[in-house]
Amino acid sequence: MSVTTPKGPQLARLPTVAADDASPRAKVLQPSGWPMPKGYANGMASDGRLVVTGGVIGWDAQERLADGFVAQVRQTLLNIAEILAEGGARPEHLVRLTWYVVDMDEYLTNLKELGQIYRAIFGAHYPAMALVQVVRLVEKAARVEIEATAVIPR
After folding, report:
1. How far lies 129's CA from each of 64, 85, 134, in Å?
2. Within the chain, where are the H helices?
3. Rounded Cα gap, residues 105 and 127, in angstroms
4. For the CA atoms of 154, 86, 44, 110, what is the dihedral angle to 10 degrees?
5. Using CA atoms, how far apart are residues 127 and 98, in angstroms rounded to an integer?
6. Residues 142, 69, 52, CA angle at the centre, nearest 5°?
7. E strands of the chain, at which residues?
8. Helices 69-86/111-122 angle, 10° precision
9. 102: helix, coil or strand?
10. Whole-prediction pTM value?
11. Within 13 Å and on the Cβ side, how many CA atoms surround 81?
12. pLDDT, tens digit (0-9, with 9 covering 90-100), for 10-52
């Protein structure tokens, strides 16, 4: 069976599973007594088919980078959503995101807006995340690169 996924901006918000869907979900791993993290999970456990992305940056299908850090994050997350959809995954299947930024202060200064953008694209599902500052990315004008891992339940 072949599945065709439409391309383009219409994938900005992926459908989420209905509340009555009994499919198994990734389990958030929160050790007893640890403070609750804000905007990420300490760990995730899941069983199913793995969908991974390479390092995704904030450019469009014509390889034009969005202008500025926040715009690049938005486009990067939209690109990840499109890749996940291509693999049959939805935002709630995300178990890990690794962010590479060229300026940690740029990230920290924009946390509120980044959270709004994240929730608009992926909803209130927060996988395990890591954030790493790097000297530069392969594309010199890129400000952020994100790798994603999703697990589609069996």
Report:
1. 26, 20, 16
2. 69-86, 104-109, 111-122
3. 22
4. -160
5. 10
6. 60
7. 27-29, 43-45, 48-52, 56-57, 94-101, 128-133, 144-153
8. 20
9. coil
10. 0.80
11. 28
12. 333 333 334 334 456 788 888 899 988 888 888 888 889 999 9
In this structure, what token pair is assigned to residue 50?
């793995």
Contact call for residues 97 and 148 (beta carbons, < 8 A): yes
Residues in the chain: 154
- Regions of the chain with pLDDT less than 70: 1-24
Handedness of CA 48, 52, 58, 63 (dihedral sign): negative
80: its two tokens: 């990840």
113: amino acid identity, one letter = E
Question: Is there a contact between 58 and 76 (Cβ–Cβ < 8 Å)?
Answer: yes
Among the listed residues 94, 90, 56, 95, the one whose alpha carbon sits nearest the alpha carbon of residue 76: 56
Tokens of 84: 């996940």
Whole-angstrom distance, CA of residue 43 vs CA of residue 3: 31
